[in-house]
Amino acid sequence: MPSRSDPEFLSLLPESALNEAREWPFEQARAVIARLGRDPARCERLAAGEEAVIFETGYGPSGLPHIGTFGEVVRTTMVRNAFRALSNDRWPTRLIAFSDDMDGLRKVPGNLPNQELLAGHLGKPLTAIPDPFGTHESFAHHNNARLRAFLDGFGFEYAFRSSTEIYRAGGFDATLLRMLARFDEIMAVMLPTLGPERRASYSPFLPISPKTGRVLQVPTLERFPDRGTIVFADEDGERIETPVTGGRIKVQWKPDWALRWATFGVDYEMSGKDLIDSVKVSGRICRILGAAPPEGFNYELFLDDKGEKISKSKGNGISVEDWLRHASPESLSLYMMQKPKTAKRLYFDVIPRAVDEYFQHLASFPAQTLAQRLDNPVWHIHAGTPPGEVLPISFALLLNLVSAANAATKAELWGFIARYSPGLTPENSPVLDRHVGYALQYYENFVRPAKNFRPPDARERAALAGLAAGLRVLDPEEKDSETIQNLVYAIGKDHGFEPLRIWFQALYETLLGQSQGPRFGTFVAIFGIGRTLALIESTLAT
Questions:
Q1: Which end of the chain is more exposed for a tag (fewer CB within 10 A), N or C?
Q2: What is the pLDDT of residues 377-430, one digit of tens each?
Q3: Structural domains of the chain, ranges and CATH numbers in brackets
């Protein structure tokens, strides 16, 4: 997904159309513009190119990157693109992808190899823990590389920032010293949010033990703001004075969030619904540090097939890599864009509909008014310049062709497609060819294992026999899907199916072994009347 709109396209967007745009990325972008409008001096610095409008996403590399991480980046990028359109691209923008890789490992994720190796390094910064995969210098470096690989694969424009690198290079030092000077104010915000036991040991500063290398959850015993140090008790009880600068401490995550916002001057960052209270607390600390917290909103969480929250440590749900083995990147971006404030199941059965909905939006784009285009998801997916090629055969239909024909290769599936539409070839329709491959992969992994044919009941048998009789009357080479669809409708009505969707469900369950399917007339036109008759006769013989 491109991360910036085409400059020529942006110049053609009239203010009236932009004012009518109501998709949520535009609403979020308007909040950022209003924020900047309250700071004229900042706007002057932006116009002079001295600063940039900062969008940020955060990632905790204690587990492998998951699809929720991707969702946050793609959604933030959509807001960034909408902001550029609304502001006519007059201000520079930057997207920071921040990895909290100096955090201490609290538990070993269950979906990783070499569990004992990781368990021996609990409490250490993620960048100080060996890579259980044996490919990178640390666990965090491995997971950071995975994150950057799939962000790069989608063409995102972003600046990667490592927590460890910034702490050690002194990038946070000035804000850390300010945090030390305002220690009591920050504690006054944090302590009411904690239980009695946690209050007794809490400090926003987590020193890194010079003896064990672990990130310590210990109280701050003394503070010396004038020399920028704190005193803490190490694991063996020795009192140690350490600077809060230079990577010798790590800040607790809520103050750490505020630390980033204040240091980078973040203007926009979204987060999950489960972090609403944390956003409020971090915002208060950000103000104590002398900065305004960013704009943003709280999105609903993705759920797995059991309705449980997707978790890095559990490895449940679906990964980016899993999705991309079975469908296009654009379909994933569409799924991420739709209704971000509604909880959605994120499992394999959502893929086919996402694919077909993407191409429906793409097909409608050319005939839409400019205002309608701005609210079309493909504008946001492609940063204003969606491609022209559409999918001439729905993904759902491809899946059912694979199922009915028991096809195992692209060549077999293209045989049916060429019969129905001789002008289509893999060479002149590469998008269709890719989706033929996706359909074969999806069917093999998710459809075939779940197929469940049921025998038709008495009424369904009579209707199937009637449909077979009607198909025999048609020309065996009939390819007009409307003619076939009208026949199917008529048979369903004649046999008393009301509503007609019950009839179509019966067709799918008895002939294809599933409860849903494509437009049946189009399926027959492509699959062939002869093969469909054989399918019906085989079913009636059971």
A1: C
A2: 999 999 999 998 889 999 999 998 898 887 889 999 999 888 888 899 999 999
A3: 7-173+252-303 (3.40.50.620), 187-251 (no CATH), 452-542 (1.10.10.350)
